[in-house]
Amino acid sequence: MSSRHDEEGGGSRTTRNGFALLAVLVPVAVGVGIYLLGTHSTPNYDYGLFGEHGSAAVDLKAQLGTALLGLALIQLDLALWMYGRLPGTRRAPRPVRSGHRTLGFLTLLFSLPIAYHCLSAYGIETASPRTTLHSFAGCALYGAFAAKVIVVRSRNLPGWLLPATGSLLVLGIALLWYTGALWALDAGSAPGFSSG
Fold first, then answer.
1. With CB atoms 3.0 to 4.6 Å apart as the test, which of 52, 109, 117, 130 could cross-link to 57 if both were Cys?
2. Measured between alpha carbons, how far is residue 6 from residues 1, 112, 158 in Å?
3. What is the pTM of this model?
4. What is the pLDDT of residues 91-129, one digit of tens each?
5. 56-64 — which CB contacts under 8 Å span 24+ positions?
6. From CA 17, how far away is CA 156, in angstroms rounded?
């Protein structure tokens, strides 16, 4: 499969391999780094989020997580529109690309207080399937963010990597919402996760 750069007429095999290695190693390092940070920090269940503590902080985080999922779905729609994959629409005008990039950056910023609270209040928890899945998905999410940045900036990687990393981001946010926000908003249950 040819890369986007090859289609433009350039790019060496060494450069492509270097970017491919970078696109794998940096996200793995980010995810492992967050995991290590979470396993080596002492959980503080009273840690606050924007002045809220205890169950109020959990409720606020669930609402913020729901808004984050909404932003991710808007990002997905914008990406589909930009690449002519949104049924019933023409290819998006150029300002949509800038909007997608800006909203992506804001989505990342919006996620940080939620993640910081998770790491500070709970760390990495493996007491139940839900908390284990949530913890590992949180670590992987920021690895996927790093991968997306590398893939977007590179012209030497296969074109299919961009929609793949974008899809992983949306799926990661949806999984975190399902195992965290939905569980909290539904009084400690979500289909497949009754407690824990």
1. 52
2. 10, 36, 9
3. 0.83
4. 899 999 999 999 999 999 999 999 999 999 999 998 899
5. 57/117, 57/121, 58/184, 59/184, 59/185, 61/114, 61/117, 61/118, 61/180, 61/181, 61/184, 62/180, 62/181, 62/182, 62/184, 62/185, 63/181, 63/185, 64/110, 64/113, 64/114
6. 8
